[in-house]
Amino acid sequence: MTSMEMKNPAEEWQAARTLYPLYSALAREFVIELPAMTDLESGADAPSAEAVEHAREWLLSVDRQIQVHQLRQFLQTTTLINEGALSALLRHHIGKAERTDSDRDKIDFLLVQFFSQCAPPRLDDAEVDLVYVAGVLRPVLGEADLTVPAWLSPLEGLMQEANHCPNLNTLFTSRVIERVRKIKTSAGANFFTPVAMVAFTRSSFLMRRVFFRLMHQDLNAILDGLRDLEQRGVSTLDCRKAQFSAEEPIDRLRMICNSWKVMFQAEYSSGQALAMLVDLRTAVETALIKNGMKAKAAAAGVAEFEVRGGDASA
Predict the structure, then answer these.
(1) pLDDT of 312 over the 90 cut
(2) Can you give the pLDDT at residue 133?
(3) Would you say 222 and 301 are in contact if contact means Cβ atoms under 8 Å apart?
(4) Fewest 10 Å CB contacts: which of 18, 87, 124, 273?
(5) CB-based contacts of 26: which residues, under 8 Å, 6+ apart?
(6) Mean pLDDT for the chain?
(7) 309 falls in which pLDDT band (50, 70, 90)?
């Protein structure tokens, strides 16, 4: 048994009592039918060994029904989560005798959430080294040997590559996020070693920062471009490439961008909506060039070779 596993039935029962209202609320949100668990509902302080075993089985059965994306969405919107609840979730998943790919992905997400919750808000990137991250994660991982194995060494180069991306389009086409994930998925049981979990928490935390910086940069570039186009008398844009209409009103595009600022706060792998954001920036920059504002478009990061025939939908 590692320091991350439950040490006795009393701890296990207390963790189950902590997780029960979280899992129940999550199940209600996603309409997941859960088996009844009378002992946990009653909140008994001194359960029988049989009740502890039933609680363990109940949690495992619920885990099998909860998808990773559901856990992400729930924890990023609920008011029920705090450091103690995150710690209980992590100990529960890390302490399992057998861990699935789903457990790996949940642990990966939960570690970043725990670190983000515990770390100071104005933490400088340079301070986020392995020693610092291991210190923050010590309550859930225990003491970690930070000798980095060779298979983890590519992470540092991938983070540097991400930091040099000028916009979301470059970040996505570089496939940095996918290459980091490939290291995780190919790690097998090695993912669950403390040094690996510390290293992946660090890379994911810093990758989130890169994503949010580029996302806000792209949104601001779009909003600035829309304002400049309006000043030139442009009222609609051809945004078919971004899955909007051929004559999309600028007022509506501005409203959509402002709503995206809220929607994208949670998760940097939001899929289609992010692709629309990237394509919308290209459409706006193309329209700037088409309307004789090449300098502003170049400053925003679009190259003239991206413009095909002056069509904003290209």
Answers:
(1) no
(2) 96
(3) no
(4) 124
(5) 32, 66, 70, 71, 74, 78
(6) 84
(7) very low
What are the residues whose beta carbons fall under 8 Å from the beta carbon of 234, sequence distance 6 or more?
Answer: 250, 287, 291
Contact present, 67 and 8 (Cβ < 8 Å)? no
pLDDT in tens, 189-209: 999 999 999 999 999 999 989
Question: Who contacts 138 (Cβ-Cβ below 8 Å, separation ≥6)?
Answer: 144
Better-predicted residue by pLDDT, 298 or 133: 133
Contact 120, 173 (CB under 8 A): no
Residues 6 or more apart whose Cβ sits within 8 Å of residue 185: 101, 104
> For the chain, what are the domain ranges?
1-118, 212-306
pLDDT at 277: 87
Is residue 171 a contact partner of residue 178, using CB atoms and an 8 Å limit? no
String of DSSP letters for the chain: --TTS--SHHHHHHHHHHHHHHHHHHHHHTT------HHHHHT-SS--HHHHHHHHHHHHHHHHH--HHHHHHHHTT-SS--HHHHHHHHHHHHT-SS--HHHHHHHHHHHHHHHHHHS-TT--GGG--HHHHHHHHHHHH-S------GGGTHHHHHHHHHHT--SHHHHHHHTHHHHHHHHHHT-GGGGGSHHHHHHHHHHHHHHHHHHHHHHHHHHHHHHHHHHHHHHTT--EE--GGGTS-TTEEHHHHHHHHHHHHHHTTS-TT-THHHHHHHHHHHHHHHHHHHTT-HHHHHHHT--GGG-STT-TT-
Quick: pLDDT tens for 250-304: 999 999 888 887 766 555 445 667 788 889 999 998 888 887 765 555 455 543 3
